[in-house]
Every structure is written in structure tokens, then in C-alpha cells.
Amino acid sequence: MGHIAEKIQYYRSALPEGVELVAVSKFHPVESLLEAYDAGQRVFGESRVQELVAKIPQLPDDINWHFIGHLQTNKVRQIIGCVALIESVDSERLLGVIDDLSAKAGVVTRVLMQLHVAAEETKFGFAPDELLEFFRSRRFESLRATHICGVMGMASNTDDTERVRADFKLIFDTFSSIRGDDALGLRGFDVVSMGMSGDYPIAIECGSTHVRIGTDIFGIREY
Ligand SMILES: *Cc1c(COP(=O)(O)O)cnc(C)c1O
């Protein structure tokens, strides 16, 4: 068995029930994705539109593609109807464009709202307060063709595990406040996507439902 297949099997047995593996295949060739597919993996994460739309026709059509990168509004059209989940909605403007184009295409697009809690300044996403305000103001009610399924976030890129844990806790607590607010009447708001190769065990301890693992499955990316 190849290394990739072994890793897929490992995660299948190691991840607790209720935690889904998103195999992050960005920058890796179709052959690597096929090895994971043949080992039973069906959920793949990609972060660039061009790469995603090039890969989709080369792979089986029962794959659930998750878009996990920064999405420019002028590229949304290319992925509407092709992806199972856009994990990285980082602005209301982007959300509005996704909704308009989904309505026009006659599809419902499932999305996660990206939270920014990490120490890095350049990361995209909503601050926890901003996201709470977005929901409490009920602006989500104007969406016609978008289903907000939960949140996605990243912890600080640091060896300080207490900082990483605090970041994941903040993501989970923000999710919980929104989900637990009965007045919002949200349905199907149950995804907390957090945890990558270097920190997923901590993310799972903090309540993650989706871990996004790239390097540990496919190896180092060559950019
Ligand atoms: C690349 C990427 C990952 C995977 O990171 P690894 O460290 O390779 O596991 C997870 N989430 C996002 C948003 C990414 O861009």
C-alpha cells in the first residue's frame, strides 16, 4: 500500500466519530488524489480556483470538493455548482456574490464563515465580534440560495500549544454562541472546521467536526 493510502486508512481509524477528514490536495497532482480516492477518501480541499476547476474533470464525480482558500469575487462563478462546501467566506461582499450567482444558477451553495483569530495579521476572515454582529443583525436572512453550515478557522502558526488551544476555543465558543442563540432560528448550523496537520489533535479536543489535513497525507507541497 502506498504512503497516501496508508495515511487515509490511519485517519479513518484514528479520527473520533463525528470528525470528518478533508484531504487538502492543493498543489498535489491528480495521481495523488486518485491514490487517496482509491483508499476510500471522498472529501478533498483545494484553495485555488484554477487548480480546482482543472482537477474536477480529471477525477471521479462522486468527490465532495471543499474550497478552502481566499476566494476572489470575480472567480466565484467558476465554482458555483461544482463544490460541496465553500469553507472560506471571509466577507459579506463575497457572501452576497455567492448568493446572487447561486440563485441565478438555480442551486443552493453550502458555506462556512471564516473566523480570524490567529496572531498572523495577513489572514482573512471575520473577527468573532463581527461574526456575532452579522448574525444578531439577522442580515443572513436576506440570503436566497446560500446555506450557512457553520464556521472555519485557523489557529496561530506557533509551537505554543496554549495559544493554539486558546485560538481553537475562541473559534468554538463563537460557533456555540451563534448556534445556541435560539432567537436566530438557524438550522443545519453544525460544522466547526478547524485543525490542520500540525494541530488537529488540539482542534478535536476543542470541538472540531472537520479537520483539514494536507501535508501529513500528501507530503510537503512544492509551490
Ligand atoms: C493548506 C491548508 C490546510 C492544510 O494544511 P497542512 O498543514 O498541509 O495540513 C488546511 N486549511 C487551509 C485553509 C489551508 O489553506
Secondary-structure blueprint:
Elements: H1 3-14, E1 20-24, H2 30-38, E2 43-46, H3 49-55, E3 64-67, H4 76-79, E4 85-89, H5 92-105, E5 109-116, H6 128-136, E6 146-154, H7 161-179, E7 191-193, H8 200-205, E8 210-213, H9 215-218
Parallel strand pairs: 1-2, 1-8, 2-3, 3-4, 4-5, 5-6, 6-7
Helix pairs in contact: 6-7
Bound molecules: pyridoxal-5'-phosphate (PLP).
The site of pyridoxal-5'-phosphate has 13 residues, from strand 8 and helix 9.
Question: What do these coordinates show?
Answer:
- The chain is α/β, with parallel strands linked by helices.
- Helices cover 38% and strands 19% of the residues.
- Strands 7-6-5-4-3-2-1-8 form an 8-stranded parallel β-sheet.
- Helix 6 runs parallel beside helix 7.
- The mean pLDDT is 96.
- The protein binds pyridoxal-5'-phosphate.
- Pyridoxal-5'-phosphate binds at residues 24, 26, 47, 68-69, 196-198, 212-216.
Please give the share of residues in helix.
Answer: 25-40%
Order of helices and strands: HEHEHEHEHEHEHEHEH
Overall pLDDT metric = 96
CATH topology: the name is TIM Barrel
The kinds of small molecule bound in this structure are: pyridoxal-5'-phosphate
Q: Determine the CATH superfamily.
A: Alanine racemase
Query: Class by helix and strand content?
Result: alpha/beta
Q: What is the number of beta strands?
A: 8
Instruction: Give the C-level CATH assignment.
Output: Alpha Beta
Q: Kindly, what is the distance between the CA atoms of the first and last residues, rounded to a whole number of angstroms?
A: 27 Å
Strand content: 15-25%
How can the largest sheet be summarized? Answer: 8 strands, parallel
The count of helical stretches stands at: 9
Give start-end ranges of low-pLDDT stretches.
none
Tell me which CATH architecture applies here. Alpha-Beta Barrel
Strand order of the largest sheet: 7-6-5-4-3-2-1-8
Domains (count)? 1
Gyration radius, to the nearest Å?
Answer: 17 Å
Shape: globular
